[in-house]
UniProtKB/TrEMBL annotation:
Residues 4-322 form the FAD/NAD(P)-binding domain. GO terms for molecular function: NAD(P)H dehydrogenase (quinone) activity. Pfam families: Pyr_redox_2. Transmembrane segments: none annotated. Belongs to the NADH dehydrogenase family. This is FAD/NAD(P)-binding domain-containing protein. Signal peptide: none annotated. Its cofactor is FAD.
Length: 390
C-alpha cells in the first residue's frame, strides 16, 4: 500500500515540496495529496510588476489542473478547517477528511489588518486578491484629485505604506511606480503626490543587510519618499494618521502588510510556536511532538534558530525548507538519515522600477541587469513545469 503524504499550501513552498516528492526515487510507492485554497499558482516575487502596473496578474498566475492531472496527484481544493495531528487527519472546510501518514504544512502565515487601522481606505498588500482593490482605489483617488485640481496646483494626494520588512520595501517602490504610471494618465505632477513609508523598526526595511538597506533608503529619499522609522501608529481617524513621534499624516490611502499570526487551525491544534509566532520545529523541520508533521515557508520563517535572529530572505528560504522537508520525509520512509536545515546565502533582490533591480548575494550588492536576469531565471524555473501542455 502506498504511503500517503499530504502537502498543505499552493505557494512556492507547497509547489516545491510536491515537485521534490514527485521526482523522488520512491515516487511509485507514495500517494501525494495536495491541498490548496486556490487552484492556481501565483509567482509572488513578480507581484512587484503587477503592483507597478507593468504586467497583469494573469501573466504570473498558472492553473494547477494540467499539472496534477498529468502526474496523478490527488488535488483537494479548500482550506484546512481542523488539524488533528494525533489522529493523522486533516478536515477541510468542505467537510472532506483526509488521512495521511506524513504531512508537510506550507500554507503560510495569516496576515490581518490591525483593528486600529481598519477602514475602507486601508488595504493589505500581501495577497493577490488585494492587488486589484489597491489599483482601483488609487485610480479613483487620482481621478477625483484631477477634478478638484486648483490653479495653485499644490500637493494634495497622500499615500502611506506601512511595514517592517523586505516585502514592505518592495511594495513601497511598486506603489511609487504605480502612482507614476497613473499620474501620467491624468496629467498630474510628481510633486502633487506625497508617498510616505512608516515603520516601527529603527532601520529601513527591518532586518535587511546594512549595505542593501543603506542603498535602498538613499534611493527612497532621492525619490522624495518621506521615511518615518522607529515610530508606531497611534490613531487613524478622519483621514489623519497619528504617529507616536507626533507626526500627523493626512491620507486616504493606507497600505500595509498587516500583522502576521499563526492560522487559528494550528493554534487550535495546540502546536507550539516560537518567540515570533512561527511553528516551533527542530533542525529537521519536524514538529517535536509529532514527528510525521513537517513545516516550511512563512509558517516557520519568522526566525533563524542558528543565528538566533529573524530572517529577511523569506522567498528563497521557503523553497529550501520545503525541499528539505520533502527529502526528510523520503529519508524516513527509506530508513535513511535525515538532513539538517541551514539557511543559505541566497540571491535576494528588490526591483525599484521596470529597469533597475538592487540585490545581494552574500556580502556583495549587485545592480541592474544581473538582478533582472536572475528574476527571469527564477521565473522560468517555476513556470516551465506548470505551463507544459497536457
Amino acid at each position: 500500500m502506498n504511503t500517503r503524504i499530504a502537502i498543505v499550501g499552493g505557494g512556492v513552498a507547497g509547489y516545491t515540496a510536491i515537485e521534490t516528492l514527485r521526482r523522488s526515487p520512491i515516487q511509485s510507492d507514495i500517494k501525494l495529496i495536495w491541498i490548496s485554497p486556490k487552484p492556481s499558482f501565483v509567482y509572488k516575487p513578480f507581484l512587484f510588476d503587477i503592483y507597478s502596473g507593468y504586467r497583469k496578474l494573469t501573466d504570473y498566475t498558472f492553473p494547477f489542473k494540467s499539472y496534477y492531472q498529468r502526474f496523478r496527484i490527488d488535488f483537494s481544493p479548500g482550506k484546512v478547517k481542523e488539524f488533528l495531528p494525533a489522529d493523522t487527519t486533516l478536515v477541510l472546510d468542505s467537510g472532506q477528511r483526509i488521512n495521511y501518514e506524513y504531512v508537510i504544512l506550507a500554507s503560510g502565515e495569516e496576515r490581518v489588518m490591525p483593528d486600529i487601522l481598519t477602514s475602507e481606505n486601508s488595504f493589505l498588500s500581501n495577497t493577490s486578491d488585494e492587488l486589484q482593490k489597491i489599483a482601483d482605489h488609487l485610480d479613483a483617488q487620482f481621478q477625483l484629485a484631477k477634478k478638484q485640481l486648483s490653479l495653485l496646483r499644490k500637493p494634495f494626494l497622500s499615500i502611506v505604506v506601512h511595514g517592517n520588512d523586505l516585502y514592505s520595501v518592495q511594495v513601497l517602490f511598486a506603489i511609487y511606480n504605480l502612482t507614476d504610471y497613473i499620474r501620467k494618465k491624468y496629467d498630474l505632477r510628481r510633486n502633487e503626490i506625497s508617498i510616505s513609508y512608516v515603520s516601527s523598526e529603527k532601520d529601513f526595511g527591518g532586518d535587511l543587510p546594512i549595505k542593501l538597506r543603506d542603498i535602498l533608503e538613499e534611493y527612497a529619499k532621492d525619490h522624495a519618499i518621506d521615511v518615518y522609522l522607529h515610530t508606531t501608529i497611534q490613531k487613524w481617524d478622519d483621514g489623519k494618521l497619528v504617529l507616536s513621534n507626533g507626526t500627523v499624516l493626512e491620507t486616504k490611502t493606507f497600505i500595509t502588510n498587516g500583522e502576521a499570526r499563526l492560522a487559528a487551525v494550528y493554534q487550535n491544534a495546540g502546536l507550539k510556536t516560537d518567540q515570533f509566532g512561527g511553528l516551533e520545529i527542530n533542525n529537521f523541520l519536524q514538529l517535536e511532538k509529532f514527528y510525521n508533521v513537517y513545516a516550511a515557508g512563512s509558517l516557520i520563517n519568522h526566525y533563524d534558530w542558528h543565528k538566533k535572529e529573524r530572517v529577511w530572505h523569506t522567498f528563497s528560504n521557503a523553497e529550501d525548507q520545503a525541499r528539505l522537508a520533502a527529502l526528510n520525509v523520503i529519508a524516513e520512509i527509506r530508513g535513511k538519515n535525515k538532513l539538517t536545515y541551514k539557511p543559505k546565502n541566497n540571491v535576494e533582490f528588490i526591483p525599484v522600477n521596470d529597469q533597475l533591480c538592487i540585490g545581494m548575494y552574500g556580502d556583495n550588492v549587485y545592480f541592474n541587469s544581473i538582478m533582472n536576469y536572475t528574476r527571469v531565471l527564477l521565473a522560468k524555473k517555476y513556470f516551465w513545469q506548470l505551463t507544459m501542455p497536457e
